Amino acid sequence: MSDSRHETFEVGGRPRIEVSLPSGDMVLLPGEPGTVEVDVEGRNAEDLEIEQRGGRIFLRTPDRLGSRWASFDVTVRTPVGADLEVRAASADVDV
């Protein structure tokens, strides 16, 4: 069974997306100016930590999850020109 989650953030300028996933799929798509949208699917999708700090959006698996075994499918829609940093043990990333 898969859970899903949707988050929307208002950003200015050139946002930075920082992702740390143990495994799964990450897709970055062009979105509307000033808005970052994050869709997550996977078991325990609600447990993925997603937060905004200024112009940065962070997505990461909390240590308590036994993150080594967690897998998420993440789609991020962001303004063109956003910075992206991805750390993953085993994930496919499409930009």
Description:
- The chain has 95 residues and is mainly β.
- It has one domain (3-94).
- Helix content is 0%, strand content 63%.
- It has strands at 3-10, 16-30, 35-42, 49-53, 56-60, 72-78, 83-94.
- Strands 1, 2, 3, 4, 5, 6 and 7 form a 7-stranded mixed β-sheet that branches.
- A hairpin with a 2-residue loop joins β4 (49-53) and β5 (56-60).
- It is globular.
- The termini are far apart.
Please render the helix and strand layout as text.
Blueprint: E1 3-10, E2 16-30, E3 35-42, E4 49-53, E5 56-60, E6 72-78, E7 83-94
Parallel strand pairs: 2-5, 2-6, 2-7
Antiparallel strand pairs: 1-3, 3-6, 4-5
Please give a quick description of this structure:
The chain is mostly beta strands. The chain has strands at 3-10, 16-30, 35-42, 49-53, 56-60, 72-78, 83-94.
Unreliable runs? none
Oligomer: single chain
In angstroms, what is the radius of gyration? Answer: 12 Å
Report the biggest beta sheet as strand number plus sense, adding barrel if it closes. Answer: 7 strands, mixed
Q: What is the helix content?
A: under 10%
Overall outline: globular
| Number of discrete helical segments | 0
What is the string of helix and strand elements?
A: EEEEEEE
Domains (count): 1
Topology, number of strands: 7
Compute the average pLDDT. 88
Helix/strand/pairing class, anyone? mainly beta
Strand content: over 45%
Distance between the termini: 27 Å
